[in-house]
Amino acid sequence: MDYPSSRDELLNRPGRPTAARRRALGGLTDDWLTALFEQAGADPSQTALVAVGGLGRGELCVHSDLDLLLLHEPKTDVDSIADKIWYPIWDAGMRLDHSVRTVAQARQLAGHDLKVDLGILDARVIAGNPELGDSLRGLVLQDWRAMAKTRLPELRESVLERTERSGVLSNLLEPDLKESYGGLREVTILRAIAASWVADTAHRSLAAAHSDLLDVRDALHVATGRNMDRLTLREQGPVAEILGDENSDVLLRRVLAAGRSIAYANDEAWHRVDRATAPKERFRSVRRLRSSKPERAPLAEGLVVQDGEAVLAVDARPDRDPVLILRGAAA
Q1: Beta strand spans in the chain (E)
Q2: If one looks up domain 149-277 in CATH, what number appears?
Q3: Which superfamily is assigned to 3-146 in CATH?
Q4: What is the spatial distance between Cα 318 and Cα 325, in angstroms, rounded to a whole number?
Q5: Residue 199 near residue 273, CB atoms below 8 Å
Q6: pLDDT digits over 69-87, tens only?
Q7: Are 52 and 119 in contact (CB under 8 A)?
Q8: What residue segments make up the domains of the chain, in order of their start?
């Protein structure tokens, strides 16, 4: 299979970057990697080629790196097989992050490395024994849930550190589509929080915002000819043209709106995590023990605070109180 030529033919077709094109590119890449796996002479019962990162999530952009894991049973010699897979990828001009491990080794590493942990949660078997990949993902998911109350604070700290470095996407003129808070990395974080079963992360507007950022990132790769995530002022005009936006201002407004939606979903998710993991009071007053009603504190007329959230008071009449929402915003 002549992957570079097939890839170029796909990417040179008329039209803007879309989810459909990313799926087509991912499918083409899967087929190529499957062929490399088979040509390498890998035993499909003892090994598995696993995609993590963008390829694993089905979000492969034009110049995305390939992130691959070659899983194998213990005592299986795979060094020469790995070389026969990795070298053709490099020869094709692709950037590759690769590793070779048993299920036990990968599980152990995930327990100490958040990046590896999150990657395996989104892992997908491309070729070989699917039971190896399913076993690894199942074990890592089991560990993630068992250790969620200690690992989620660690994850949150990493988010705060990243935000210090890359800023809040919706506040930036040159946002990093991947690393700024509210960017693509936050969608991965939401999936990790949901996988922990600690808090719900459902948000209806997230899919559209996520797709918007992926389209912009894809167009940025086309405009620059390389793997680039910072949407600089210089590149905003060409990216807007590729996507069919009227001008760079329209593009930036769309990007910032997507970032706000994703950041809001994450803010909500972390708030729920805080509520779920907050230390419970060891002793309660007799009055509280006798009452099954949740504690409420006044916030504004028609509004109270319950469990850390603003909710309607019992006597609130939002249908007859048009400024209720404004009082809530002011409070």
Answers
A1: 47-52, 66-72, 96-101, 124-128, 297-300, 303-306, 309-312
A2: 1.20.120
A3: Beta Polymerase, domain 2 (3.30.460.10)
A4: 8
A5: yes
A6: 999 999 898 999 999 999 9
A7: yes
A8: 3-146, 149-277
Number of CB atoms found within 10 A of residue 246's CB: 9
Classify strands 309-312 and 303-306 as parallel, antiparallel or unpaired.
Answer: antiparallel
**Amino acid code (one letter) for 316:** A
DSSP states along 63-84: TPPEEEEEEE-TT---HHHHHH
Determine the pLDDT at residue 287: 45
Q: Which residues pair with 50 in a beta bridge?
A: 69, 125
Per-residue buried b or exposed e for 60-75, using 16+ beta carbons within 10 Å of the residue's own CB: bbbbbebbbbbbbeee
Tell whether the model's pLDDT for residue 281 goes beyond 60: no
Residue (of 201, 198, 204, 171) closest to 188 by Cα position:
201
Comparing 85 with 327, the larger pLDDT belongs to 85
- pLDDT cut 90: percent of the chain above it: 78
Count CB neighbours of 310 within 10 A: 13
pTM of the entire structure? 0.85
Let me know if 213 is exposed, middle or buried by CB neighbors in 10 A (0-12, 13-18, 19+).
buried
Q: Which of 212, 213, 252 is nearest to 234 (CA)?
A: 252
Do residues 129 and 122 lie in contact, with contact meaning Cβ atoms separated by under 8 Å? no
Which of 41-55, 109-123, 172-186, 305-319 has the lowest average pLDDT?
Answer: 305-319
Q: How confident is the model at residue 294 (pLDDT cuts 50, 70, 90)?
A: low
Owner of token pair 């006044």: 298
Sheet holding 303-306, edge to edge: 297-300, 303-306, 309-312
Query: CA quadruple 5, 6, 7, 11: dihedral positive or negative?
Result: positive
pLDDT in tens, 28-38: 999 999 999 99
Q: How far is CA 99 from CA 60, 117, 306, in A?
A: 19, 14, 48
